[in-house]
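Fold these two proteins, one after the other.
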Amino acid sequence: APNPFMAMLTADVVGHSTPEKGGSTVWHLSVATRGDGYNSYTIKRRYRQFDALHNALKANFKDLPELPPKGSSGNTGSVKEEKFLEKRKTGLGAYLRSLIDQPVLRENEDVRSFLELSAAEQLMVKLHEKDIYCYNLVLEKDQALEQAQMKASELQGSLSRAQARAAELQAAADEAAAKAKAEAAASAQARAAAAVEVQKAKAAAAVEV
């Protein structure tokens, strides 16, 4: 059965190295998870290995992507060689991407072996496990945050009610103080008036005598 993990893979030629004079160019291939390039590994292949893979695939498949033709790169270090290698890098990269983009080809054992896709499957399993772990971690943090927000909302509600009650009590205290002050003032006036009346009465009594 098709492996769903394989649909998430990408492959490309990212560079090359040339051994000592007379040796063939070694191409550096990067196999990565789509959209997550740090989960990747690099393998090295020579052109003849590409050619062998292509011939093996031709025995079982039609309409294969085009493999860059064989050819000479010219003198080492020459401008001609640099142009040749750049063109071949582009061609081999396009060839790899075409193989990976076709489910029937990327599931082929020859392609899997060429790209060491067993390692890729292990990579994808680890990535999947990491994604689940991260999801659960974020979910736990979100739940904790939601609970903290609810608690803060409850505390804010309690604080608002306490502040409202304090305001009511302060208003009542202010009203009581004002009333007491008014009553005290009225009482003082009454006492003063009574004292005046007493003085008047005393004065009247003295006159009569």
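Now the second one:
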Amino acid sequence: MNSKLPNHCLSIVGPTATGKTRRALELAEDLLKVRRAAGVDLISVDSRQVYQGFEVLTGADVPDGWQQQNDSGLPRQFFKHPEKQIALHGVSICELTEDWSLAHFVTFARSVMQWSWANQRQPIIVGGTGLYHKYLFSDDQTPMIPQDEAVRSSAELMSAVKLQEWLGQLDPVKLEQMNQSDRANSRRLIRAIEIAMWKARQTAESVAVVGSDEDDIKWSQVENEVELLTVPLAKIQSSILQRVVERFDGGALQEVERLLALKLPSSTPVLTTLGVPEITQYLEGKISATECQQLWALHEFQYAKRQLTWWNKN
């Protein structure tokens, strides 16, 4: 076996409730059987399963018996198979109060992939967040542009309308490209303003973006074998409803209660996690348990359809 595996990656993608984690685990065991790699690293692409204390609500798929560990060469803790050289990264690694963005994910996942290759292991990307996959294997460094605390401080008390005006002055083309949902989303408007201001400060000979790779890996040229999992929409819908009922009865209510007790700002991304708004309405007595489960399942199904549409186009 060479001192370093080629920059090769496998990706198991598709909408929610299609068995991506199960398939990734099967593939990992097959790779070890044929000794293709010294170990396998599964990297979750779920932007909400990163949060500790949200395992039930988000359906974080940590197999029974796996132990949480740390390694000096890795940025975050991970879960390890009790007997085999299989690790799961990107699950239960953040506090509920922490930010987790596309930029955080790209930096995190690339560091795990490079560690994996350096140790003759095989990384497998698992998850259906298409935008994360897109930028993980892109040379576009826009997601790596750092946050601008001055911008965020100034924007903190601004309405969406005022933020739109600000962005329109800096980058009217970007504002025009944003859909109505994005224009009403203060967090996305602020990020667009940060990027516009960063670009405005750059010259034709600007230095590389903070967070770009020092070893000059061309991420767009990384060999990435993609397996898209799909099942009939009716089956996805049925599986989602079953999952929602199980999570509702299995601890999701308590997880949301603990989250709400933190009294986080309404703009905090974790509050938009599917299941949180619906359970919040139930806890406030605005809807019944059945209505909560049906509404949650509906939103999960709508999300699954959007995921499938994205993957079919990409």
